[in-house]
Structures are given as C-alpha cells and as structure tokens.
C-alpha cells in the first residue's frame, strides 16, 4: 500500500504557545532573542492551528490525501520535559487524531520536530545523555494515550539538521555554535530514537520510523581533494544518521577529530533496533569541494549551477531524488527497510492574485518532476511506500520567519485565512484520478499501515 500525504510541524503551525499548560520550547526562547529570526518573527501565533485545526482537517479531507504527517509538541504534552503528562496537551492531539480517522486520513505522528522543552535545554539539551531518557519517558506518555489509534510513528525529524543548525552553527535553536563539538548531539538524539522505539513497541505501536534529511553528495571535481571532501561530507550528513540505525555502527568520523567518547556499551544495539520504515526528506543535492586553507571543517559547500532555484535559493533537481533513493538501496541492500519520502517541496513567492487565487505553477512543476523521479526509483526496485508534500500550509519557516512559503495552502498571517493554491487543486485532481484508476482496476483502496 502506498500513502500520499501532506506534512506539517507543531511549532511551525500551532501557535497558542502559552495556552492550556504548554511550557516554553527552545524555539520560543530563540525566536524572541533579537536578531535570531528574520524581522523578529516568532511562532507565537503561526497558523493558529491550535484553534483552527478543524478547518485544516477539512483541507486535508478535501485534498484527498491518504495520510497526514504532523508533529506532537513535547512542551505541550510535558511542559518541563519531565514529570506527568499535561492532560490538556494530550487532549488536543486526541481530538486531532479522532478527526483525521473520521475523515479516513491515516495519522502519522512525529514525536520530535525540534521544539525541545526549554528546561531540558537548560540542563544541556541533546548534549546531555539524560535528554535521551527524558525523550523515552515523553514518548511513553504519548503512546499510552494514542498508540491505539495512530498506526505510524516517527521518532525524530532530521537529527542532522537539528545538530548542524542548532548546535554546530547556531542558526537554529538553541543557537549554539560548537562546530565539531556538536557531535554528541548526534549520538544522544540517536540514543533517544532507540529508547523511544522501545517505548513505542512496549505500547503496541504498529509502525516505527525515523526521518533523516538526506542529500546526494556530488564532488566539485575529480580532484582527489574534492573527492575526499565529498566523502567526509557524506559521512557527516547522511551516514552518521543512517549507518547506526540500519547497520548498528558509526562510519569513520576521524575527519572530524577524536572518536565519539559518549557512546556506551549497548547504545548501538538500542539505536539499531529493527524499524518498519525509513523516512527520507529530500530537497536538493549538495556539491562539495576541498576546504580552503585554515578552514575548520574538512569540506566546503559550493553552489550547484544550471538549475532553476526555489525562493530559498535551493536548486531544483528532481533527478536527485532518484539518485538518493537508488543510492540508499545500493548502499544498504537488505538492511534498508521500506522508504517513505516524508518531506519534499519548495518555497515560492506566492501571493494572492485578483479574486484571491494563488497561481503557484512553479510548485506544480516541482512536485510533478519529483514524483516522477520517485516513481522511476520505484520502477528500479526501490521499495518506496509513501510520499508527503511539505507542506500543507504556509508556516513559520524557522530562522526565515514567514518569508518562505512552502504550502499547498496560502495562509494570510495577519488574519489566518486559508486559500488553497493551484498546486492544491492540481494534487487533488491527481489523487482523485488515482483513486478512480484503482476502482476501475479492482484494486483495494488504501488502508491503515
């Protein structure tokens, strides 16, 4: 069974940051620090999904997706990151889950999409081993309430990005610039994944995944120095987070200094517990050259030219998704579980035109090209089970604030008004045609995984 879906994340859409017992997250703190987010934007209101969720469920139902990937806000469920659950927080996700199921939309819940409770950050955040154990406790609270109805669980979203931007370079919360000193945050996130996987299994979760941001890495030239730099970057971005989960071992990290000294006996057994799928987020390939003299890191990121760019300045390379999926299958072989493309999408300078319509033809071309690339990978034998568009709604785009629009649905951030874009209607028609084709062939409709 293949799932077509759309995705969002809690801090990016929910708002209501101080309502019903929710505690502060690192993104609440970070976004209120001057100079951290473009134009001082915060997620205080965002899309106001916390109050307007019935409208958003109706948009999903109207779109005709099989599944909705959303994230659960840890500080809404467990305001300080420790202790008992906040009943009002769980009640919110309980209502959302039941509403999705009533519409025939499969809920796919991500447990951590970067909004760590601030008190845990004050105690060290993901640099502390204790945070992994607190994550398992939180997971158990959520699973105890919702695992009977949510069939698909994702432990972490993009641990590479959270480590690299939040702990190594400081452009995301919590705003630390430790460079290679951020590596313990990689291991502790992965340990948290392993402990959370055990907690989910203990509560009867049917499917458990992790979602990694992956990129095909292309050397800038055939020069041996560029090839070595590209290999070092591939290890950091891709293999550091895929190898321990799928193979039970870390790749060679010697290019980044001394070996991780925070790994303890038994950690990799937890991290590599069998999964039901690997979530893959893809946006673009990465081109890497040798570092310049004096650089701290063993690589330099250089532009990919010859392709159109999104509003974010990212190159639009649909074939990169085919390259990524077939590359994962070649690298991991039988160790690779079924793959779900859990995010794929683009930012565009979308504005409502006359009559309120939003014509995002560039997004339609982007999605069409990437879906075709994914389907070529499937024809080449890669076991892909789902595709989720990022994102259902325009939202708070982290350090970019509200300046980057990824949604199938336009949001007027002054009023909260939702307007489906041309891409929403295009995808709805494509999914409706798929359902009609399934009916004509006698194939069963999608069911819960």
TrEMBL record:
Q: Which UniProt keywords apply?
A: Carbohydrate metabolism, Cellulose degradation, Glycosidase, Hydrolase, Polysaccharide degradation
Task: Write out the transmembrane intervals.
Answer: none
Fetch the PROSITE patterns from UniProt.
GLYCOSYL_HYDROL_F1_2
| Organism listed in the record | Planomonospora corallina
Q: Tell me which EC number(s) this protein carries.
A: 3.2.1.21
| Name of the protein in its database record | Beta-glucosidase
| The reaction(s) this protein catalyses | Hydrolysis of terminal, non-reducing beta-D-glucosyl residues with release of beta-D-glucose
Recorded coiled-coil stretches: none
Which SUPFAM superfamilies has this protein been placed in?
Answer: (Trans)glycosidases
